[in-house]
Write a structure and sequence with these properties.
Layout lengths: L2 E5 L3 H12 L3 E5 L5 H10 L1 E2 L4 E2 L5 E3 L4 H5 L4 E4 L6 H8 L9 E3 L4 E3 L5 E3 H6 L9 E5 L4 H5 L4 E6 L3 H11 L4 E6 L2 H29 L7 H21 L6 H14 L1 H11 L3 H7 L7 H17 L9 H12 L17
Parallel strand pairs: 1-2, 1-6, 2-5, 6-7, 7-10, 11-12
Antiparallel strand pairs: 3-4, 8-9, 10-11
The structure holds NADPH dihydro-nicotinamide-adenine-dinucleotide phosphate and 1,3-dihydroxyacetonephosphate.
NADPH dihydro-nicotinamide-adenine-dinucleotide phosphate (NDP) binds next to helix 1 and strand 10.
Keywords: Lipid biosynthesis, Lipid metabolism, NAD, NADP, Oxidoreductase, Phospholipid biosynthesis, Phospholipid metabolism
InterPro entries: 6-PGluconate_DH-like_C_sf, 6PGD_dom2, G3P_DH_NAD-dep, G3P_DH_NAD-dep_C, G3P_DH_NAD-dep_N, NAD(P)-bd_dom_sf
Enzyme class: oxidoreductase
Length: 346
């Protein structure tokens, strides 16, 4: 039995307690300063307010000021914040961790540098004073927290630099419904699953457009599939520009599928497709964790920076740049269909 301390009691970290608890481990779930109500309610009856599921009885719950107590004696630390909590995690959590205790995080996202270099979060944390000696790993791939909580068959990748650590982490979390591939291409896996958020929003524009033209509830799959293909093409080019391994794309592609089917990034795309402005859509989804807009903005900025330096061709990214225009410049949705046509000759 291992002691697992989850920091951040959002939906994903809390969903991950299911496989971990069922494998017999001691679970300590610590809320961030924003999770106070979630922890209060969990302490009453194990019901998680935003996950909308009841966690296993026997999990230990901690408010943020009890974090150090929860970290004491832990064998693994699981980071559960969203991309909006990355700096809080760097400033408030990393300095409290011991370098021989592995960390694994669920956070998806990336930071773009002025030259267009895209930095994944494990690398970002590793570059901080408190993070430089830590053993930082991450989870990427298609996984919605509620479906994992419901024991739906789930397939993810654990990535990190040390093979033995990854095998140890896999043994802790692996169950007959939680399937874990391993990779040491941290940047590849993490960028792939981050990029898909912006593209899930882009594909979902077609869902909203269909509803706008033909009525709510009307569904067409051709247009969704067309932009799915275009998204994969653009993601593949982005990963190539980032210099990562080809096989890491597959985790982002699976993630794109699940996010279009049932993610929060879908909801904003659908509203934009229906004709709401970005501000109106944001207002309608107030309180939701919407990472897609930040990711699409950062990715478009990175592509433009690389294009200025002659490293990328803007013509390769019509969908990304259109989404960026819609959310950041108020342009109406007008999918650049012609630009998605390609010619492939040997
Ligand atoms: N690796 C994987 O398998 C998967 C990962 N994800 C990713 O996991 C991350 C968390 O998603 P999810 O749990 O669904 O989101 P939630 O919104 O449920 O939880 C987000 C967590 O981050 C905290 N947080 C947000 N902003 C801040 C801040 N400024 N400072 C400190 N803490 C903050 C939240 O507090 P509060 O709840 O009060 O906002 C909460 O603890 C996301 O990056 C998401 O993309 C998602 C699916 C699968
Ligand atoms: O990452 C996800 C599933 O793997 C969920 O994405 P959303 O943040 O869009 O809900």
């Amino acid at each position: 039995m291992a002691i697992l301390t989850f920091i951040g009691a959002g939906q994903m970290a809390s969903g991950l307690t299911f496989p971990a608890f069922e494998n017999g481990h001691e679970i300590r779930l610590v809320g961030t300063p924003l999770d106070r109500k979630i922890i209060d309610r969990l302490r009453q009856d194990n019901y998680h307010l935003t996950l909308d599921r009841t966690l296993h009885d026997g999990i230990h719950y901690y408010q943020v000021e009890e974090m150090e107590k929860a970290i004491e004696g832990a064998d693994v630390i699981i980071g559960g914040v969203s991309s909006f909590g990355v700096d809080w995690f760097a400033d408030e959590v990393l300095p409290k961790l011991h370098k021989n205790v592995p960390v694994i995080t669920v956070t998806k996202g990336m930071i773009d540098e002025p030259d267009g270099n895209m930095v994944d979060f494990p690398d970002y944390w590793q570059s901080t004073k408190a993070g430089k000696d830590l053993n930082l790993n991450a989870i990427g791939g298609p996984c919605t927290a509620r479906e994992l909580s419901d024991h739906d068959q789930t397939w993810v990748a654990f990535c990190g630099r040390d093979k033995d650590t990854l095998h140890k982490l896999k043994a802790i979390f692996s169950t007959p419904y939680y399937h874990i591939s391993l990779s040491n291409d941290v940047k590849g896996v993490e960028l792939s699953v981050a990029l898909k958020n912006g593209y899930a929003m882009a594909v979902s524009l077609t869902i909203g457009l269909t509803e706008k033209n033909e009525g709510i509830g009307k569904v067409h799959h051709n247009s969704e599939a067309a932009l799915f293909g275009q998204s994969v093409t653009e993601m593949q080019k982005l990963l190539k520009l980032a210099g990562v391994r080809d096989e890491s794309l597959v985790f982002g592609v699976g993630d794109l599928y699940v996010t279009i089917s049932g993610g929060r990034s879908r909801r904003i795309g659908v509203l934009l497709g229906r004709g709401y402005s970005y501000d109106e859509a944001k207002e309608k989804l107030k309180g939701e964790t919407l990472e897609a807009v930040v990711i699409a903005t950062r990715t478009a900025r990175a592509v433009r920076a690389m294009a200025e330096r002659g490293k990328a061709d803007l013509k390769d990214f019509p969908l990304l740049l259109h989404v960026d225009e819609v959310i950041n410049n108020g342009k109406p949705v007008n999918i650049p269909w012609q630009a998605t046509e390609a010619e492939y000759f040997e």
